[in-house]
Amino acid sequence: MAEAVCKLRLADLVQIAIQYRSFMYSLCVLNMINSLVASLGNFLVIRALWKSSSIPCNLRKFFISLALSDLAVGLWAELLYGAVIAVMLSETGSGNRKPPEYLCPILITFSYFLGSFLACASFLNITAIAVDRYLALSLHLRYQEIVTSKRVVRALVCLWTASVINSAVFVSVYKISSVGTIVIEVSGLLVAAVAYIRIYQVV
């Protein structure tokens, strides 16, 4: 099934590379630049968070988790997707309109899985940070009792696991590949919006 889905995605990429060539060149260059900036920036953020003692322990775990997912995006996801686009442009530039099947199923599937997985993990980390800040303001002294270090670790494990499951569905089932992502995005946006509105009201 993964190979069939990969071939459909590959055919889509080839069509885009043929029809929107200049846009794909720009996207390829931007991916390479963003990869460098994201990697360096998030490496510095992780280093600063590791040394910082003024940030509460639970919040620091969420921030480190977010920075790790963004660092992985810079180090692997953007570089890999940029390489796939470069191969597409090279293949279609030589007049070949046939999809380069050597990219399937491993490279294309892994590229889509990695991109989806890390984007989902980053988004869920941001939502978790919003909820954590709301709980810190609304629970006051009970925050330390309810939001313990073990519960934060469990929440992070659940968050990363949900990202893996969503990404596995995304690369396996072509027709409903966007459904899980849309559900997570809408749910996360609603939760984060409610949390920030409540934070604003409390403050």
Model description:
With 203 residues, the protein is mostly helical. 86% of the residues lie in helices and 0% in strands. The chain is built from 7 helices and no strands.
Low-confidence stretches: none
From the alpha carbons, calculate the radius of gyration and give it in angstroms: 20 Å
End-to-end distance: 51 Å
The helix content is over 70%
Beta-strand residue fraction = under 5%
Question: What string gives the helices and strands in order?
Answer: HHHHHHH
Q: Strand count, sense and closure of the main sheet?
A: none
Envelope shape: elongated
What class, by secondary structure content? mainly alpha
Give me the number of helical elements: 7
Mean pLDDT: 88
Strands, total number: 0
Give the helices and strands, then pairings.
Layout: H1 2-19, H2 21-51, H3 57-93, H4 106-139, H5 143-146, H6 149-172, H7 177-202
Briefly characterize the structure.
This protein has seven helices and no strands.
Keywords:
203 residues, mainly alpha, elongated
